[in-house]
Each structure stands twice: as C-alpha cells, then as structure tokens.
Amino acid sequence: METAVFRLEGVTKRYGDLVALDNATMEAGSNEYISFLGPSGSGKTTLLRVIAGFEAPETGRVIFEGRDITNLPAHERGIGFVFQNFALFPHLSVIANVGFGLRYGKSPQPEAEIDRRAHEMIDLVGLKGLEDRGVDQISGGQRQRVALARTLAMQPRLVLLDEPLGALDANLRGRMRTELRAIRERLGVTFLHVTGSENEALAMGDRVVVLDRGRIIQTGRATEIYDSPNSPDVAHFLNRFNLFDGTFRAGYFEGPFGRIPAPGARRADRDVYAIRYDRMRAVAPGSAVQGPALKATWIASEYLGSAIVNFFETDGGRVVEMEQHLSLGAPQTFEPRQDCLLTWNPEQAIVFGREAA
Amino acid sequence: MEQRFLKSVLGVYVAAFVIFLYGPFIVLTILSFQQGPDGGPQFPIIEWSTYWYQQLFGLTPPSRIAPLPFGDALIRSLILSMMTMVVSTVLGVMSAQAFRRKFKGSSVVFYLIVLGMMVPGVLTGLGTSLLANNVIGIERHWYTTAFATHVSYTFPFAFLVMLAILNRFDASVEEAAWSLGVDPWTTFRKITFPLIFPGVLSAMLFAFTLSLDEFPRTLFASGRDQTLPLAIYGTFSVEIHPNIFAFGVLTTLFSFALLSVYGILMGLSVRRARRQAMQEDIA
User: Fold this and answer.
1) What is the tens place of the pLDDT at every residue in B195-212?
2) CATH number, domain with residue A349
3) I need a labelling partner for A226 at 20 to 30 A (CA). Which of A171, B89, B100, B163 fits?
4) In this predicted complex, what is the ipTM?
C-alpha cells in the first residue's frame, strides 16, 4: 500500500445500548478495492455511514486525504456513496440524475461542462441512448449503473458501496462484479464495498475486512483470509468450512472424529477444528483409515454445475458438507441414509485452541 | 347467504350516507332556480328560472329584494384563506420536517401544535378578542387577529398531513444528494420538496378550505369587516331569499373546481409513482 487515502482511528458508534462499531481502526490506500464482509448486524453499513458523514461516531477519528473529517457534514466530504436501493432521484431523468452533483454541488459547473461530463459517465457505465429516460423506465441493472455514474461524475477519490449488487439477480450480479472492478481500475479511485456475500467479498476485494459485532476481526488479502482465517468466526463467515467443537490439548485435537495430532494450531477464544468442504473424502464404513474418521449418513446432494455438494449427518445430528469438483472425475454417488466414513488429510485442517501458542 | 345480507346492509348504509351528504345541496340547487323576484325559498317551484343567478351579478332590474352584500366579504375571505394557506403550509412543512428527528420535548411540542385543532373554536375566538382588546390593546381585523386564529386552527392539519407524508419518505435520496456535495438546503429544494409535493398540495387544500368557511373563531376575532361566512349568517337574520341558494351553488361549484385541479395534480404524481412501482416489480 502506498499513501493511505483514508484512515479510521478507534471509531465507536452506539445506538442506545447496542454497540454498532467497537473501536474500529483501519486504513485504505489510494487505488484500492476493499471489501467488508460480515453477517447482518455486524456494523458494516454503520461503518460506511460514519465514513460518509451520515452518522456521527461517539469516539474516534475519521481521516481523509490527511484531513480530520470527523465533524465535517456529509456534503463537504467529497466521498461518494452508492446505496443498496440505488436512491435515484425519481423525478429526474437519467442524465439529470448523473449531472445532479455537478449542477447543484459545491462547485457548480457551466451547463456545457455538466453535459459533457454526464455524457462521459453515461458512456463509461454503458448506458448510451438512455439519457432522457426517466429512472422509472429502466431495469434494475441499468439503475445500478446510473447510481454508479452519478457518484463517479463527481470524481471522488473514495467511493463507498453499500451492498450495491444486493438488489440484482444472480446473472446480473456476476456481470456487474466484473464491470465494477474494471471501472474502478480505469479511474484509479478507492472503493470500499460492503457485502453480505462471502463470494462477492473474496472475488472483488484486493483486501477483505471481516467484521463481527462491530469489531474488525481480520484484515488481509482474499487468499490470506480464505487459507488462514484467524478465528473460528472468520472461518464461519467464509461459509467454506465444516467446523467441529472439541478440545485441544498438548498438540492433539479431540473431536467427534477421534483424537488426532494438530500441529500449528492457532490461539483462539475456543477450541474449534475447521476443515474445508472440498478437502473431505467419503469412504465405506469399516475401511481402515489413518487419521480422522467421522461416522455419518448421507442425506442429500446439491448440483452446482462445476461441483457437487453432499450433505451428511453425524451421530450428533450435525450436518457436514463435502464438495467434489466435477473436473476431478466422476463424483461419488450415495444411497439415501447410506452410512459412510468421512476422512481428510489432517494437515489441511485449521485448528483453533485456547492452549495453542 | 350471510355475505349477501351483509352486502345489502352495507349498500343501504352507503346510500343513506350519500343522501345525507348531497341531499341538502340538491334541495338548495333546485330551489335556487325558483322564479323571481316573488318566489320564496320553498317548494313548490312556481316556475323554473335563472333569475336569482342574474340577480347575484346585478343583471336584473331593481326590486324590493336587495342584492346580497357579499362582494367585499368574498374578496376578504379569499385573501384571508390564501394567506392562511400559505402560512399554515409553510409552518406545517417546516415543523413536520423538524419532527423527522427525535428531539427533546418533541412529544410535548407535538401536542401543543395539535391542540390548535382540538380547542373549541368559540373559546379561541373569544380569547383572541379579549387578548387583543384588553391585554395588548390593538384593534381587531380580519387580516390580523382573525388571521392568527385561522393559522392556529389550520396549521395542525397541515402539520399532520406533512408528518404522514414524511414518515414514508425514503431519506436515502437526501443522503445521496449530500454525498454528491449538494448542501442540505439545495437538497431540500431540488429533491425533498418535489417528492413531497403531493402532500404539500393536500396540506394547502386543507388549510384553504378550513379557513374559507371558518365561523366561530372569526366571529369574535374579525372586528368590523366581515368575512364571507359571517356575511352569509348576517343575511339569515333578516329574511332568506333563493339568491343565497344560488350563491351557495356557485361557491360549491368553485370548491369542486378546486378539488378537480387537486385531483388532476394528484393523479399525475400517483400515476408516476405507480409506474415506478411496476418497473420495480419487473426489474
């Protein structure tokens, strides 16, 4: 990261007794794409609203381009915001929406300049030909682009996106992901993107910030987060791991699958064993397996196109997922209620323990 | 079976309601076409004529029945209603806007405002006149003291209408405007106001119509020059002629015209909103 465009220092925000943001500290470089991941209620949206100036934090500072903007009103910050519901101005046409900030903002432009820049933005987001439509006469995906063009027309150095793809269908979401990245790279601005979808966070962010109950619990590159979540909570939010409770003692983890060595365990506030869905293998019951062995019965499978996910139930009533990529050959098939033994290479597991170093 | 019974009961109820609502007006309308100048304000109709309408506009030869002395009162009432409409609506929009955020003592302020439409009008009128005469020592006029009572009466209506409208207003469009560097005042003028305009129209209509036929407050607070409702009441105490019915028909038609304009403006903005909602379903 080169120069930090933006910094949060110990920001705390409460709504009554509820702590929406708890001492949040982070930094964003120029020309960076950061995605925020967390369950609903984790404070992601509050974080963006504090940065935008829609909410005032109780403590902490917000620094933007070297200036303390904690007490600056929203319209003087020069930070763009894209809303989940797009928040387009319903009484204005597409071009008037895009030109709104240029026309009525801090430094009003001459009409010709407004027109030129609004058209430029409309071209950029691929809406040429729709300039004079009302925003009620275009589709959801097109509205998303209007919202983006309207924000980008002001040439902000920081753009906040609050679940901007949440209101779109899956197909469109995929396309807009690629376009958002491309547009951002062309303009060289910093994007802070809040999402509830772990796929979106991992796919889009140069860096991913994971939030839980108002705290930032991990920050790192997408691959770092994916390969080494630093707590059971992060592993849980990624939605890619089977998590088992048990006890970690003296380098061994004892869980429903037996007692197996767990070198390289990480310190955490509780003992949890995490193994990725696609690392699981199923063998016939009674087979001799080395390492972990978990008795389970098959319940159902789900076809994902490129992979198949099998769901098993353990004796304890837990559901365990196993993902098999179809590129690796024909997948295993199972009978309903068929008993299996699930196993995996223990070196690929991530173990959290209170006693870990 | 039960359903059919319920339906017919409701049907009768609605019919009764409509008759009570429009019956008096229909009777007045019929009687306003009574023969003149000898026909009286009762059935039967001696002969159909538009005499009383002509008399209103001074198109008939002089007779023993004097033309209605309503010209000045009508103009006064229209001016007063306009003034009341503007002031109450502005106050209503501003105070409802203030109530979008919780502030200390907001519930007390809420009841203080709403009290204006609860307090019996006669008391307000009497109180205002005593206040003006004995405490402050100013003369009463329709455009000062009566105007104040009209505002205190119609402001709560405008306020409640705007409160309901702003309650459903999605604040994210305002935040979007701020994030584009547009200051809050310009945001209000260019975004909020156009979007709440249907509500503003309703508030204006309320304030105007309530003020136009306001009687008890004006009775005590208006001083020497009468407003239209007072002038009409004044003629009752002498003798009633069908010319007053003709006048009633004309003012009602004027009200209908006002309502139609309101309806058309409202329809336009509702249609726009509906089109938008439909688009959202498709998208």
Assistant:
1) 998 899 999 999 998 998
2) 2.40.50.140
3) A171
4) 0.82
